[in-house]
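Student: Send me a single protein entry containing the residue sequence and its fold in token form, directly below this note:

Tutor:
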Amino acid sequence: MNKRQARLFAIVSTAIASVVFLGLTLDSHRQFDKLTNASTITDQVTRGKDVWHNNNCINCHTLFGEGAYYAPDLTKITQLRGEAYLRAYLKDPAKFYDENKHRRLMPRQNLSDGDIVSLIAFLDWVSKVDNQGWPPRPLLVTGATFPGSDRGAGASAPAAAPGGGAEDPVALGEAVFRGAVPACTACHSTAPNVNMAGPSLAGLASRTQSLLTSSDYHGQAKDLAGYIRESVLTPSAHIVPGAMYSADGKSFMPATYPSTLKPEQLDHLVAYLSTLK
């Protein structure tokens, strides 16, 4: 290729790349309103955005992977934690963690109830933006690990049913545990003493047997399978003690699973959780 051909090739390539870039940019702008659900941006959502900025939340947290990396990404936080949990947490974060033990440095912002509601509305709008799966990193909190490794040191693997394989209800149940919406792993660990937004599920089977025969139990379940179903479908039937798990007699456990889990998925989840001895 001589100089003239090289120059022509560079000019044509640059022109083509510029046209493609311009086209992609225009196409992205064309879809912004749809992708961001712009029609759902209310005055309260806008007020919540102001609360987010005025309190410099981005100095520690990220949205869509952008911001500081000192604290967890909050892009999907409302789907993972729910409004009840977030309302109580924002009111007084110190109730949820022992800062001497976990070094949780989330400051108490002294937000008004109105600011908290608006901030949650903003974060809920953020969670519903079609971000094409970004950021890929899962939410990380004290004691948590990446999906697939949450058993941690000292945790026991679930006992698979004889024969195993793709149709093994225990294996299918573990897939539900990690893939439900929201994923159970977002709030629960299967490692001993690793309490997150929800208590550790290590030793669930043995603990439940003792709980069901004690006067501290206030639900209706008669056995382990019934207790697991009750905890998933009507989480406030029995409140696990601890300020970080409930408020005003209501569990922070999402109440959406009755509509999002199919009956067979619930059966598989029960089978898996029943193996956590």
